[in-house]
Amino acid sequence: MTDTPLQPLLNDAVIVLQAPTQVWSDETGDMGSAPIHGVYHGDVRHVRALTVAVEGTAVETIACSSPAPQGVVFAAVLRGIDDDQPDPKVRLDRTRTVRAGAVEERIRVSSHRDVPVPVSLTVRIAPDFEPLQHVKAGMADRGAWGWDGERASSGAASFALSAPGAAIAVEEAFLAVRWTTVLEPRSTEEFSFELTLEDSTLVVTEPSMPADATVPATTDPRLRRWLDRAAGDLSALRLALPAHPDDAFYAAGAPWFFTLFGRDSIWAARLALSQDPSIAASTLRVLARLQGTKKDPATAEAPGKIPHELRSGALSLPNEGVHLPPLYYGTVDATPLWVCLLADARDAGMPEDEVRELLPSLRAALGWMTDHGDASGSGFIDYVDETGHGLANQGWKDSGDSIQWRNGRLAEGPIALSEVQAYAYEAAVRGAELLDALGEDGGDALRSWAADLRTRFRTAYWVTTSEGHYPAIALDAHGAAVDTLTSNIGHLIGTGLLDPDEERACAELLLRDSMSSGFGIRTMSSGAAGFWPLSYHGGSVWAHDTAVAVHGLLRAGLRAEAASVARQLVDAAEGFDYRMPELHAGDSRTPGVAPVPYPASCRPQAWSAAAAVVCAEALG
Fold this sequence. Notes:
Helix content is 28%, strand content 25%. By secondary structure, the protein is of the alpha+beta class. It has 2 domains: 14-199, Beta-galactosidase, Chain A, domain 5 (Distorted Sandwich), CATH 2.70.98.40; 221-455 and 471-618, Alpha/alpha barrel (Glycosyltransferase). Strands 5-6-7-8-15-12-11-10 form an 8-stranded antiparallel beta sheet.
């Protein structure tokens, strides 16, 4: 058995959230039995354990339900202080509600007995103040904290504890909150406590404006449930930067990505555009304010480049050899995707004056894209980590083993991803249209650049293997086409990079058994040597990845294929109680068997929730 710290599993935990605050527990409502459990605010876990106990009895949970992302209700019976009859007559109900920066819990103890029942109720809270990255790395430790009678604190992070009518004491590593009462016959008593969380280092905040989304109409009851759940999750994932609280964006997901991610926030806004056009415009503005202005290898910043992620401090994941600065630009797809989102937002009605305000950022993004340094000499947009401790892969499949040949050998970087060339082609063509519409010059040069890219792509990327003729996932350091069949081809469809026959050929491959699991499109073909259904990027199914293919199929006019793929995601959503996780296992579907979770999958995830919207479009 390994002694190496392991990332916490998430699939069995209960979460309630309102960004930037989240709470993870078990199905009893208690916290502390699993590494992920706790109360988090921003990038810090403020509480690692919380339990409810009643003297003289076990608290036996009988139900757990979450009517909204921000709330959950736990029901339990207290048979140790009940009578000896079969029907339970003493029960305890906990209602937990999360707001941005606060967690409230109301505890109701009810008795149907005909005699008084003494009750001594204790809530034990273990302050923690552990950095989120330590929890993710499986390296969490019990940190020091102080208590001044009202507030627990450690460094810049703290929480105030309010518990009306309770006695509060420090007992070893816990704050003990205790109420004592006598339940009169057939009566109910209510108790409550609230944690108010603060962290002066927080770089994100709750938006000042409420969500303004319209859930698409549908007659499909399963799709309706997914859309409703997704709308609630997207609302709970909304964040803003403190200096501009009126401009919201979607946090990437809980628990690890509760902040701004360029690629994730763009794709979530893009997939959900028909439901909430306003967040596309505000996401564009947020990212434009952080757009690169200088060349800095330490942060991967470059002029015009859209950032990858924003944190309150440096992110270190020793197990993965990753050490990232607070503002990190290690992505090559966010910049062209920003241009595509701007074009989408304009088409959806973004006012021209707002589009024009972003003209300098548009020109800078297009400039980075067309002038991007070519580390491999391939002539395509590529990437290489210059620090040795950044992200080795800088597309959406950013794990270290995601780019590999059919025989399982890892590709040598610099890497030029196929979908990045597709995003860039679309961005150049639509960027030219934007410049034309604004009366600006430069459109013809962009169209010429895009046409040249399209010609060169067709020569360099297409491969033929036993699985067919298709675009490779990438070019490696030597300009060789990495020949694995992957879901990346779905990202090419609808961008204009491929001609209609090529798009139909890619669509056919995506619907074959080797790529189509029955619950979505696999990230890697089951015919590849490196395929494994529980590999993060080498055989699993990501809802957003499949939804991007649906999005492209619709744009390419392949509506039957889009509907076929969308139905698979609806089936998967049903298997996950309509909260689609970040990813799930790429096992082949078996009749009557639900999709298998990827046990460390984040949920809710913004682009997984947004997948519901584009699936609704595909299914009419």
